[in-house]
């Protein structure tokens, strides 16, 4: 089978423009420029995906088209079209078809279906996809014992991947349920619940950074490449059927970033004494620095985000005692100016290290995920999906596939660090304060400094009393009487 050439060999260093001009020849509805496919009708692109006895599509094309085609056609409809073209072109539906022809085509079709099931397994959660897959593979498997075995192996691999995904979703639900239970316990009986802090579990910032990297790589590993397209883009407006997709694994990863940010802010604000708050801040600065050294930029940014939250940043007396040299370096690295130039430079360095690395430790690259999503979003917004002649703008999708394929490489790295269950359990399930609770704790540590803060403090205290489970109308009357 043809090997996949690097995307850099097919794509230029810059993005593509909305305008499109070419004088190159057209081949069966496909337009090429410098021998690279740049556009085509949807029907021609689907035809280009389907193998024949003499032809097999390049693997780079397979990935790019399967990734981007969902902007124009549902995966189950694409699978149906692929099956139809395969069956009709090769006359596989004909009972009198020469079995030699079936045997010649079978390895190519099995290869295509294997590419699809391995790279985009979540497409096959749809029963219509599975139905079309079974219909085609049953016909292919009739040709030869070898291909029957290959079809069985492909099907078993797909079922394993779907089972693992289901188990992951169940595990996430249990983690979220445990976190919710602990938060409820703190709210109902705050005087009884003993709320530990992370430093009491582990005071080594390097170990904590390693455990955060475990969580990052695990959650990254379950994000399918198609989710970058489905989560942010609706079906093409020229099609009658429009769908908004929702993806649990991508959402779970975004929620993890938010949780880590609020956990950092909570750990700081819950400390009653200034000396302890200083210690916690400096601890998380060290954790963030270790995340940077590992290549875990997402946890790094989440920690910085937590320390930059208003309830934390307003603690001026606390921050005046913090050794700021390390923190200033980290903020400089993640400075958003010039489109995060410093971060992008560091990411490029980590990527180069990963390419030449001999160990998984050096291969770790965990991007700042929100910025990755933003880049893909603006790539989609900045380039049209269809050209004026109705062709699909495949130039754009080569660039999209290039970005997503890089992510695919990063997420496959196995975490080399030993797991610490106590740290993981705490980080994933410990109660975290809401923004209002963070402000109340912050004002308790360092009182309101101006009228605006005083007004907010009074409002939050009153709201907290109203929301307490033991609060009653009689309590409100007593408060009103006292006032």
Defining key terms:
483 residues, mainly alpha, Son of sevenless (SoS) protein, Chain S, domain 1, Son of Sevenless (SoS) protein, Chain S, domain 2, four-stranded antiparallel beta sheet, 24 helices, 4 strands, elongated, disordered N terminus, disordered C terminus, Ras_GEF_dom_sf, RasGEF domain family member 1B, Ras-like_GEF, RASGEF_cat_dom_sf, guanine-nucleotide releasing factor
Question: How would you concisely characterize the structure shown here?
Answer:
With 483 residues, this protein is mainly α.
Can you walk me through this structure?
The protein is 65% helix and 3% strand. By secondary structure, it is an all-alpha fold. The chain has three domains: 23-158, Son of sevenless (SoS) protein, Chain S, domain 1; 191-437, Son of Sevenless (SoS) protein, Chain S, domain 2 (Orthogonal Bundle); 448-482. A four-stranded antiparallel sheet has the order 1-2-3-4. Strand 1 (26-27) and strand 2 (30-33) form a beta hairpin. Helix 3 crosses helix 20 and helix 12 packs antiparallel against helix 13 (297-307).
Helical proportion?
A: 55-70%
* Residue share in β-strands: under 5%
Low-confidence stretches: 1-26, 235-246, 469-483
Please tell me the overall pLDDT.
84
CATH superfamily of the largest domain: Ras guanine-nucleotide exchange factors catalytic domain
Distance from N terminus to C terminus (CA atoms, Å) equals 82 Å
- Radius of gyration, in Å, reads 27 Å
Q: How are helices and strands ordered from N to C?
A: HEEEHHHHHHHHHHHHHHHHHHEHHHHH
Number of helices: 24
Whole-number total of structural domains: 3
If classified by CATH, what would the architecture of the largest domain be? Orthogonal Bundle
Oligomer: single chain
Main sheet makeup: 4 strands, antiparallel
CATH class of the largest domain: Mainly Alpha
Strand order of the largest sheet: 1-2-3-4
> How many strand segments?
4
Assign the CATH topology of the largest domain: Son of Sevenless (SoS) protein, Chain S, domain 2
Q: Structural class, please?
A: mainly alpha
Cα shape: elongated
């Amino acid at each position: 089978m043809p090997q996949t050439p690097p995307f850099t060999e097919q794509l230029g260093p810059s993005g593509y423009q909305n305008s499109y001009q070419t004088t190159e020849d057209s081949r069966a509805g496909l337009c090429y420029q410098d021998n690279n496919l740049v556009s085509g009708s949807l029907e021609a692109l689907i035809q280009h995906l389907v193998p024949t006895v003499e032809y097999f599509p390049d693997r780079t094309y397979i990935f790019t088209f399967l990734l981007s085609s969902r902007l124009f056609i549902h995966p189950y409809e694409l699978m149906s079209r692929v099956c139809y073209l395969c069956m009709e072109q090769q006359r596989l539906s004909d009972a009198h078809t020469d079995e030699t022809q079936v045997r010649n085509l079978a390895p190519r079709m099995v290869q295509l279906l294997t590419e699809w099931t391995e790279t985009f397994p979540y497409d096959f959660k749809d029963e219509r996809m599975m139905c079309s897959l079974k219909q085609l593979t049953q016909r292919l498997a009739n040709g030869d014992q070898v291909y029957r075995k290959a079809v069985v192996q492909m099907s078993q691999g797909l079922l394993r991947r779907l089972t693992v995904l289901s188990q992951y979703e169940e595990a996430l639900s249990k983690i979220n349920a445990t976190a919710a239970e602990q938060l409820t316990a703190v709210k109902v009986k705050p005087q009884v619940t003993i709320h530990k802090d992370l430093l009491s579990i582990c005071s080594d910032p390097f170990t904590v950074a390693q455990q955060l990297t475990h969580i990052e790589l695990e959650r990254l590993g379950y994000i399918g490449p198609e989710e970058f397209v489905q989560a942010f883009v609706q079906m093409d407006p020229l099609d009658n059927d429009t769908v908004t997709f929702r993806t649990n694994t991508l959402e779970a990863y975004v929620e993890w970033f938010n949780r880590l940010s609020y956990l950092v802010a909570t750990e700081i604000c819950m400390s009653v004494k200034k000396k302890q708050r200083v210690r916690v801040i400096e601890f998380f600065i060290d954790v963030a620095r270790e995340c940077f050294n590992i290549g875990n930029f997402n946890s790094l940014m989440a920690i910085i985000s937590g320390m930059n939250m208003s309830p934390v940043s307003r603690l001026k007396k606390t921050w005046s005692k913090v050794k700021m040299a390390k923190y200033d370096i980290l903020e400089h690295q993640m400075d958003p100016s010039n489109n995060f130039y410093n971060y992008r430079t560091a990411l490029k360095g980590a990527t180069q290290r990963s390419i030449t690395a001999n160990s998984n430790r050096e291969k770790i690259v965990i991007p700042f995920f929100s910025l990755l999503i933003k880049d893909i979003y603006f790539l989609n917004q900045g380039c049209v999906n269809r050209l004026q002649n109705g062709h699909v703008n495949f130039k754009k999708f080569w660039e999209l596939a290039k970005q997503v394929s890089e992510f695919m490489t990063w997420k496959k790295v196995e975490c080399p660090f030993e797991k610490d269950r106590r740290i993981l359990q705490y980080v994933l399930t410990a109660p975290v304060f809401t923004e209002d609770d963070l402000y109340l704790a912050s004002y308790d540590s360092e009182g309101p400094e101006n009228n605006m803060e005083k007004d907010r403090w009074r409002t939050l205290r009153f709201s907290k009393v109203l929301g307490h489970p033991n609060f009653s109308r009689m309590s409100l009357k007593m408060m009103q009487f006292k006032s």
